[in-house]
Amino acid sequence: MSAVLTRLSREEMQGEALDRATSGQSLTNWPTIFAGFMAKGIAESDIRPRENVLTYQAWRALGRQVRRGEHGVKVTTFVPMEKKTGEIDPDTGAEKKASIGRRAWSATVFHVSQTDPIK
Fold this sequence. Notes:
Blueprint: H1 2-23, H2 30-39, E1 53-55, H3 56-61, E2 64-66, E3 73-88, E4 95-111, E5 115-117
Antiparallel strand pairs: 1-4, 2-5, 3-4
């Protein structure tokens, strides 16, 4: 039973990573992404952030595996921070959370050419 729960959590995590990777609006990391992948020999015209440059978990959500030994490009992102309020949501029974800001986080992104389809 715990294996099923772990798998669902992993799938949810991958789906969330894919959503964040494809729906972001910031262009802050784009120069870093282009410079990093062009240094790896990938043509500028083949680099499309949010389409074919994604995080490891986002590629997993799309059914692709980053090849062993591949090195990506490090970027900085901001993740939301929440705290528990102590209140219980009457609809779900879960404890409510309040947003308290964002914090910097580094992530590594990979180009589609560094991945293979999962069989």
